[in-house]
Amino acid sequence: MKTGITILCDNYIAASGLVGEHGFALMIERGEEKLLFDTGPGLSLPMNLDFLEKDLENLSAVSLSHGHYDHTGGLKWVVEQTGKVEVVAHPAVFEKHLKHNPPDSGGPPRYIGCPCSREELEALGATFRFVDQTTRIRPGLWFVTGIHRNPDRFPRDARLVRPQGDELVLDPIEDDSSILLETDEGPLLVLGCAHAGLLNILDHLRTEMGIDRLRGVLGGTHLMFYGPESLAVAIDELEKFSIPFIGVSHCTGIRAMIELSKHFGGRFVPASAGSVFEF
Description:
The protein has 7 helices and 18 strands. It is α/β, with parallel strands linked by helices.
């Protein structure tokens, strides 16, 4: 079955007339199915849908990679447009995600979670389906979550915290989730931010799902927090999956994008807002 993916929100744009914004969202279209994966921060989604002549009519579902505002900020607008719609997310998606930047500044942490409550979204028509383990949510479409966190295989961002009693602790962002799409050419891994660690997610595909080859990897990789040695390990792990295509977005970071481009050559592409991929 033909699968089309359109990047709707990203830090960068693929063409003049689109709006770039720190965040991520894409649309998956296959057969009669139309799904949103993330909704961006909220400003760019309606503008870019209009520019790209896309719409939310007959939207099958929304899935969320995690609860940060730059992936959930457009959700209220989406539900307002669609009315009743299923939203697939990890149960911790409404956790109190905070950012303390820098951690030693002495200033108060800033809330960076979903700007709308579950109750507000449900009143508008959202129906939440909470999934805490990797599950097939549609034919040929898996919601990949509940990733084992090997502490040696994911980057720690000390700015991301959450309250625990009277203290702030490092936020594990346990709601981090990805999408695995079965295509005629093999499975495609679609990432939101990969807060669980790209290496841990790849380990999960291999050990829990029996996948050792990928059609490609698309989305936010969080490689901006990998040092040179860790980035080299990530590239090596990607090669083990024999990927013919990698399209990166959002939190990958310029330095990591350059290294990926140098290594993968013609197999690499920046997946900016407006980019369209067919499988």
